[in-house]
């Protein structure tokens, strides 16, 4: 057993080291914010911090750019994808884990191969498919492929949770005369709530930040999402890094804030065994 | 499972109701067929044709020989190898060490550290790329300015030099995704059975020895999943390279993603774009299946083994 004083000192040293590592780790984000807060005269200084700071850049970029509309594009595509993924994958997981439909395990294994497919090999065929559907520059043209790519991961997690849920509850639902749909809605879904939360948050992050397919499908500027607009601003504000980094900060902010708000529930889902495979 | 067989019994009573139950699997299957399976079959077929999609001629394996004869292809293979070999172990190591200290030695600030180290994962990759371009920039970037105080002098931007470009991009990728490895290991550490840890402690294992001889082996499922996800992640690398170097200078930092993008959408050469897509797909499937068969790796991050 270690004396209390030694434990306390060790804990302080570990915290100090973690804070120092974190300080270095945060340099890119700090640098981004710092350039966004600079006056044009300081913008090109090769320093992490400059003084004084100004909020002019933020005011200019908010005034001059349709950030609200771009944000809305991201939000529509992401929320629709998340809703579809959660609904479709939980129905599928229920059929495999609880109803044990004939052939469902074969389908499960087949769908699982999606997780081994790198997106890089899918962009060309998806682009041609969406072109044939006339879905270039539409929300649906991103939502459905994102959903198809997202369902397998969600379905693995939800299936594993449903299999671990107490069987007696499903038995009781049957005795009470619930049909399959009622059992799914009133018994299965509430039982796997932490997994649903985990899957929702993860799918939200992945969809919000997807770049490759969005770059190809969304070519009209009024359709673009927050993830693909930074390139055009880097050209627009080439001579004005203060404005560029102010707008980059604003683009990165929504998801960071959202994650900070939901991280507790996300990690809880993770620790509850969302990832036990 | 008893509930399963009970419901199955109900199911058998009515054939029409039984077939209605397939509505549960229909949406997922439809999405898979239309947006995964069909595109893969299409691209495999298209890889055997040359010319544009309008006037394509069957060409056998001509696209594949063209692609494999392109020196850029072999630059890509080398870059992807370097990418995987550096990114995956370094992320595991840093992520694992962070997870260990955060999980076992912090209490009040645990949530804070977990969240802060994960933030690069949730920061838009296009924002990250532009910030790192600025960090690496000659004259006004902070990398040159601060690294010269520790004896590292950079004459140009590391992403502007063909020799260092790929490594400079790998650093950005490691920085962005280490938080993910950390979180997977945190889940693994939090779910370690306390009896085993207590038993090890009674046997005199503590500190470094406990970490290396007890905890590391018990986190093997998480490590295997991170390896599997890391390989697939490597093969689909795109935004960082596209935004920071565009595969340059002089194609030195080209990866599969940017190569496919250029062949397919810049040059409009659907045939070789399709051949490349198939090659990437086959590499991914082969490497994944080998890991699943040999290591018993899982496709989803594994925190805890099923009892």
How many helices of chain A? The count is 13
Q: Termini separation of chain A (Å)?
A: 37 Å
Report the biggest beta sheet of chain A as strand number plus sense, adding barrel if it closes. none
Percent of residues in β-strands of chain B: under 5%
Report the uncertain regions of chain B: 302-307
Cα distance spanning the termini of chain B: 16 Å
Number of domains of chain B: 1
Number of strands of chain A: 0
Low-pLDDT runs of chain A: none
| The first-level CATH class name of the largest domain in chain A | Mainly Alpha
Q: Please state the average pLDDT score of chain B.
A: 85
Mean pLDDT across the residues of chain A is 88
Fourth-tier CATH superfamily name of chain B: MetI-like
**Overall shape of chain B:** globular
Helix content range of chain A? over 70%
- Run of helices and strands of chain A: HHHHHHHHHHHHH
Question: What would you say this structure looks like, in words?
Answer:
Chain A: Belongs to the binding-protein-dependent transport system permease family. The complex is a heterodimer of chains A (277) and B (307). Helix content of chain A is 73%, strand content 0%. Chain A is mostly helical and 277 residues long. The longest helix of chain A has 34 residues, at 241-274. The mean pLDDT of chain A is 88. Chain B has 307 residues and is mostly helical. Chain B has 15 helices and two strands. Chain B has helices at 2-13, 15-21, 26-46, 62-69, 71-105, 110-122, 125-136, 142-147, 165-190, 194-202, 207-218, 220-235, 239-244, 256-266, 270-295, and strands at 49-50, 57-58. In chain B, strand 1 and strand 2 (57-58) form a beta hairpin.
